[in-house]
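re: that chain from earlier
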Amino acid sequence: MLMRTDPFRELDRLAQQLTGTGTGTWTRPAAMAMDAYREGDEYVVAFDLPGVSAEAIDIDVERNMLTVKAERRPVAKAENVQMELSERPLGVFSRQLVLADTLDTERIKADYEAGVLTLRIPIAERAKPRKITISGDSSHKEISS
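^ sequence. v structure.
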């Protein structure tokens, strides 16, 4: 049997069950934790999805809206198993991000390892800084009246 050291954890779990904030449904998914940062010429977004299989993750981009949706299902249990403690949230998780026009949504790369989904979104070539050369006549002309 497992022993709990936090006396308020069970109260938090019960409150989440009553309010429905701990689990998500397809019509009302729960949020997933994420980090977002710039690394060189690309933006990186990392989502925590422990216990979710790669097949249960759906990534869509429509115009500049990125949607990540995942589902964590209960683990199949043997017939003689009695659950003692269940704190890992189940259900549907989703996150939507509005991407800037300066990002190249055609070349997004996705990687899933150790329960972390990492998206790498390159900055579009048109948004990168560039030098503008000046052309024209370099000789000076006088205006006489």
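Residues 38 and 73 are 32 Å apart (CA to CA).
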